[in-house]
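Progress report, Aim 2. The chain analyzed during this reporting quarter is listed below.
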Amino acid sequence: MGCLKKRTAKRPLILAPQLPLAWTVCWLVMATVGRALGRPLATGSDVQESVLLLSAAVMVANIYNLVILYQRPDENHRQVDWLVISYALVLICSTVLAWGQPRLILLPQTLAGWPLVFLLLNASQAGLGIYFWQSWPRRQCHGEESCLPLWQVPVALEITALLLAALIQPGGGRRVVVLASGVGLVFLLVCQWRNRDRLFAMVPARLSASYQVLLGGQLAALLFSLVLGGSTLVQRWNGEPMNLIGACFAISVLVVELTAGGLAAMQRYQLQYQYGLARTHRLRYRCLGALLVAGLLIGYCLA
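Predicted structure tokens for the chain:
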């Protein structure tokens, strides 16, 4: 099969609909970790204003996606019009929630009430964004069958929010929660093992230094998740309180999911990677990514 020579319209920004979900899960998990260790995260007015500015940038990116979707080159517009309308409604509802109660919604402490509704809205938005990206007309030779699956990132983030946040919260050492979290960890490891070939796929992005740094961080965080996760699950099964090992485990899981999303996006963006810095010495950049993840964990423990 040859390439499509006809140049198609711009494609939507693939990361824009997934960023609100990633932010919600990351803040929820880290807030739960901080509360369990007696290190509550700051939620002052300065933090709230910074998060609102960040959410405004993400909202603009999603509005750009809507404009692109309404100008899509599909012939059968009516078949996906209702999905575009759903995407717009989800964006409107999540924006009203976020800007109506920013401290409660954008800086959640527990997964209940409106924060749970916001999480479900963000998950729907991410799913619709992935659908639109995968159904968009292609113009490159490189197919997506050799790339990391996009659906794995929002699914993993939802599992993290539901299970990991329940595991690490104070008094969350019930054995049914520990068992469910163990199943979730095994699911994460199995998915990463099945995607081992796609991590090293011969895509243009492999020439990028940032791609190799993300790949190194992904591999290091996966190793930390495996080692620290087993210890954390054993401790919580025995009713022991949350400690720094569990905190580092939570951070490692988040790094695995976020780097997976970044790698999956970079594999699909067709940029000028042929001039990348990683044409040679790719191992150095992977080691740099691994060192950054290790430094992140060490810095959190020493803070």
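The two ends are 55 Å apart (CA to CA). The CA atoms of residues 66 and 88 lie 7 Å apart. These observations will guide the mutagenesis work planned for the next reporting period.
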